[in-house]
Amino acid sequence: RATATMGETPEPSPQAPLAVLSKVELRVSCKHLLDRDTLNKSDPCVLLLMQSQGQWMEVDRSEIIKSNLNPVFAKIFTVDYYFEEVQKLRFEVYDSHGHAGVGTHDDDFLGGMECTVGQIVAQKRVTKPLFLKYGKFAGKSTITVISEEISGNNGYVELAFRAKKLDDKDLFSKSDPFLEIYRIDDDRSEQLVYRTEVVKNNLSPIWEPFKVSLNSLCSCEEKRKLRCVVWDYDSRGKHDFIGEFFTTFEEMQKAMGENKVQWDCMNPKYKIKKRNYKNSGVVVLLDLKIHRVYSFLDYIMGGCQIHFTVAIDFTASNGDPRNSCSLHYINPYQPNEYLKALVAVGEICQDYDSDKKFSALGFGARIPPKYEVSHDFAINFNPDNDECEGIQGVVESYQSCLPKIQLYGPTNVAPIISKVARVAANEERTKEASQYFILLILTDGVVTDMADTREAIVRASYLPMSIIIVGVGNADFTDMQILDGDDGILRSPKGEPVLRDIVQFVPFREFKNASPTALAKCVLAEVPKQVVEYYSYKAFPPRCPQPDTPDSNLSSPQ
Fold first, then answer.
1. Peptide bond into 17 cis (omega under 30)
2. Low-confidence residues in the chain, pLDDT < 50
């Protein structure tokens, strides 16, 4: 070995983008199921179906629980989770008949329930009534689904080792020890996790502290066996074996705080040969620090709400809304591009907002009563409360406000970004991961106040918010790409860079012939990473989940 450093492990960055795809475990139980059997109680089984291209496909099914109207199923359903998609699930409960298995006849059907993966993870626990065919209640039957994320990488650990009174392997000087840690995998193979630097000429070395991911150290399993080996370094690569010991991450954790853990460093050959052999030295774990890296789902399941605001461009370049060529034309048979974009993105965000109220703002129009130009007005014309009930409420406010306003200009979006930023700044002061803000700006042209907008985005990048801009119509949006920091860092006019990339810009025309879900996927795919980056930068952990309460909003038939 030419160098004394024996292959450092790169330190994981708390702001490294995490994979957006997670796996979620679903556990199911039912209460007050209908009794279909004459002699004894129903023998229930649950089928899980997922909607794919409009068709319900069976994904998995539970075991059958004999003669039980309040079953708690042992089966754990595993589903892939994507924030940027509406993933529709259907649970169907059937009374099974022994060897015939689970029939799917109407007589055996005990009830069904539909929801989305987003609803389940946002609430952690969903209890809903079961419905028979045609929206009829299945008596008092309910189904409860509890979700839990399967953690892939739950952070990293910092370890500090030293050794004492190691055997001397060198003739004219002392040993040059280094330490290796191996993870023992299920097939008994060994995987090198870390190798320390060499400490020259020292039988009681203190090695530099180092960081490894929990995934790498023990595959996130505390009881997985680890083999630690101490060598005497040899520049020709023929290192002399000093000794070894076995441990687990569970045992290492005793070294947290003031405590230390130590192991005898054993040479098995000496143990056999030497009668009074005790050890070849002692290895001490001086300190252990765990650094959790949280995922998007950790925050959502901890109760973080996503508050959705939409801002709509009412400048004159959209065309007179009474004219069918206008981008704001209300066609009774076909929603315009503004409505398509609003519904596609809003439908996903609504699962993460418990009160289902959305702020809806307009800019670039003259508004009643004085018909002065406004760049941040509530489209429901209630200056004290700009929130609408659900996505449908936003759509209705948009349609009813069009005849009352006069489209004007210019296209200034900085006032609306600053308005949402003020609310986000109040939220930030709570020092809790409780609310994150998404601002969807729908505009038909390049913004006029580019300098102010850049300044507002740089300020917003320090706050719990993300901005999605969808360009509607056929304008040349080249200049808008500057705001999306993907191919360079966005800076304020004074040259100050954004703290994190929070803007996603897409022209709607790229999705004109695709389904609305494709637009939502594209613009929302970055949000989970942006949420994690913000709370990691602030070092805010997820909140403790609130006590589970069945959600009253979810009790209507699908």
1. no
2. 1-20, 546-558
